[in-house]
Amino acid sequence: MIEETDNELMYQVRSGKLERMSILFDRYQGMLFGFFKGMTQDKELSADLVQNVFYRILKYRNQFQGGQFKSWMFHIARNVHHDQYRKKNKPVHVSVDEYRDLLRDETEADFDLHSKEQIQQLKKAMARLPEDKREILLLSKYQEKNYKEIGEILGCNEGAVKVRVFRALHDLRVLYHQYEKNEIL
Amino acid sequence: MTEVEINRLTQLYQTGQLNHDEWQKLEHAIEQGLVDINQITILSKLKDGIQYMGEENTPAATRMKVLEMIENEQAFMNKERIVISKEWVIRTVLAAAAMITGLIIGVVVRPGSAPKQDVALLRSEMVSLKETMLLTLLEKETVTDRLRAVSYSYDLDPGSQTVIEALFATLNEDNNINVRLAAVEALQRYGTESWVRIQLVKSITLQESPLVQVALAECMVALKEKSSIQEFQKLINAEETPEAVKSKLKGCIQQII
């Protein structure tokens, strides 16, 4: 059986078959959860934000005018996160200990111990990046490096996205090495 | 830029020896697509590392809540359809009854001014009742009630000043974004009134949500309200305004001017 595309499903939702949204939820909840968790380092809040994204998709289903569904969804996700950030009026930041607890729950299949440690250091370094840099790296991950689509989400051109990804990766590199040398505990 | 130069810059970057000018050249080359970030091995590895970061599903409760939300919306839609069809039947019956009554009055009884006054009185009482309901629902705690209140305003055309002022209070003070968005949409209908347009413009800088800011921007475009440009400019200049909103506002200004 041929799997329906995101856009086909979204058009069905628009036409009143709301139950089709559950397929979109199953398809993207993990990705959105990963995005919000990367942004907030708060699992409970991230689950609420995922729910909020689907609430808005449902509410504004008639506003979907084609284009990539995933980009539209991440556009909403950014707004949801931004609204949350404004509400709290400060970025969510957790201590390294709390972050360590968060890491413990996660699964990284197919990694040996050495690599797993490196990935954990990378996660800690990511958590210390400024929000805009963390965001572009997470978008780059979930948009499968499609810089044009990321540019549409962020409101800038493809070249500017590439430079922003480069700068974010550079900062991540610096932080990662600080962890590696135990300069940050 | 030659391939040799590109290789030299990426090598210097990896060994941390880029000076300021070379850094700028490298960024320019990346922007132009002459250098792929994946060519810079150390950054490419970090990117791969990010890809490997574990993913997990939302808690089962989230799925349940979303499914419940979808069901509620579906039920609400179905209910609306029933209400609309019921309303249609009632309206048709009432219209037919009114027509027959009018005919009887016209033929049998001499037309006087008293029945007209009664109808006018009844109509004004209906409007007043709906207004009261709208104002009461706007004070309710649940978002659904407040959304319903805003939708009632569509039955009150033309809306009274009290209703419009209540909608403005909702737009500027309600803590729910969806209610505020509904208020923008409802208020746009009164955009022919100059005082309404002035209040809408004033509301622009009071809003913190990008969604509401964008909704107001679109409303201003629809109303072609030039006085809003100054307020948009303030938002564009504000550091905390997200880039996507700034870009949207710039686009709206272009459409207004």
Strand content of chain B: under 5%
Into which percent range does the helicity of residues of chain B fall? over 70%
Output the radius of gyration of chain B: 30 Å
User: What does the average pLDDT of chain A come to?
Assistant: 81
Shape label of chain A? globular
Instruction: Tell me how many strands of chain B there are.
Output: 0
Give the percentage of residues in beta strands of chain A.
under 5%
Low-confidence stretches of chain A: 90-113
Helix tally of chain B equals: 12
Q: Based on helices, strands and strand pairing, what is the structural class of chain B?
A: mainly alpha
Shape assignment of chain B = elongated
- Class computed from helices, strands and strand pairing of chain A: mainly alpha
Structure, described:
The complex is a heterodimer of chains A (185) and B (257). Chain A has 185 residues and is mainly α. Helices cover 72% and strands 0% of the residues of chain A. Chain A is built from 9 helices and no strands. Chain A is globular, with a radius of gyration of 18 Å. The N and C termini of chain A lie far apart (51 Å). With 257 residues, chain B is mainly α. In chain B, helix 8 runs parallel beside helix 10 and helix 9 runs antiparallel to helix 10. The radius of gyration of chain B is 30 Å and the shape is elongated. Chain B starts with a helix and ends with a helix. In chain B, 23% of the residues are buried. Chains A and B meet through helix 2, helix 3, helix 4, helix 6 and helix 7 of A and helix 2, helix 3, helix 4 and helix 12 of B.
Summarize this structure as a short list of keywords or feature phrases:
heterodimer; A: 185 residues; mainly alpha; 9 helices; 0% strand; B: 257 residues; 12 helices; elongated
